[in-house]
Structure to design on (278 residues):
């Protein structure tokens, strides 16, 4: 359906679209075209299989090459999420864990409410064949799933990008008072700060044997991340938590299991000295 009009205002806003390890340049190009259709501009690509730039992507973009020209390539998903404060992960599969599962309309309203407050937000899309891995979903705040035929739930990446881009654009003229979180000044911390908390806490727990076996560690780690991302911490709250972890970690690394506080030991020693000196 043709409808390009260079005299009209070009929309270029909205959430970052993050494609995780896309395999085909054609799919990247069609995803860029879907973004352009509905006014999105920030395309982030994690480790594309066939390298970058891609002539096949340019051909499939059909006039949306300006989206591809501004696309950013990242080696890892964590790096692609830096600077974002709220991210949803799209999936067609059932997931175990603690994430809130949203439909595309509700997820888009959440994205719009935060975007309207100048927060940077994003949407994750997985690989053509296997989608997003559990550990990748665990880095997002919420899950988005689509109401599709349960017997044929597979969506092409570009189709999924188009659906979410369309739903986001629909929220553009919604009254601000009708959006979730519209009445608050709460600003969630950027993802790199949350990832720093993950690393610190997981290292401290690993040192104390919390994960027990290597086989259980991935699941326990995913569950821990899911719990922490659900809260939507502010920067100040993350600093408080990291301070608590630092304090507990210093204590636990210096003491054997079951031991009391180092201060308690010092107090007991002082009591013994006092008793001796009688």
């Amino acid at each position: 359906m043709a409808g390009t009009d260079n005299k009209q205002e070009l929309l270029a806003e909205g959430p970052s679209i993050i494609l995780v390890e896309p395999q085909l340049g054609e799919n990247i190009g069609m995803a860029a075209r879907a973004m352009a259709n509905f006014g999105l501009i920030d395309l982030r690509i994690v480790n594309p299989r066939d390298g970058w730039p891609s002539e096949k992507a340019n051909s499939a973009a059909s006039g949306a090459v300006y989206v591809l020209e501004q696309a950013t390539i990242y080696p890892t998903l964590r790096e692609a999420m830096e600077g974002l404060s709220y991210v949803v992960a799209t999936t067609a599969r059932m997931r175990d864990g603690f994430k809130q599962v949203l439909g595309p309309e509700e997820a888009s309203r959440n994205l719009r409410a935060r975007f309207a407050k100048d927060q940077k937000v994003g949407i994750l899309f997985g690989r053509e064949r296997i989608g997003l891995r559990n550990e990748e979903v665990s880095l997002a705040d919420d899950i988005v799933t689509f109401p599709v035929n349960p017997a044929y739930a597979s969506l092409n990446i570009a189709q999924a990008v188009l659906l979410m881009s369309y739903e986001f654009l629909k929220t553009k003229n919604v009254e601000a008072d009708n959006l979730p979180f519209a009445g608050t000044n709460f600003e969630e911390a950027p993802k790199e700060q949350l990832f720093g908390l993950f690393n610190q806490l997981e290292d401290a727990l690993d040192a104390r044997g919390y994960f027990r076996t290597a086989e259980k560690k991935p699941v326990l780690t995913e569950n821990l991340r899911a719990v922490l991302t659900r809260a939507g911490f502010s920067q100040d709250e993350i600093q408080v938590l990291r301070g608590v972890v630092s304090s507990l970690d210093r204590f636990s690394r210096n003491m054997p299991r079951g031991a009391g506080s180092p201060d308690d030991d010092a107090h007991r020693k002082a009591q013994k000295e006092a008793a001796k000196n009688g």
In short: The chain has eleven helices and seven strands.
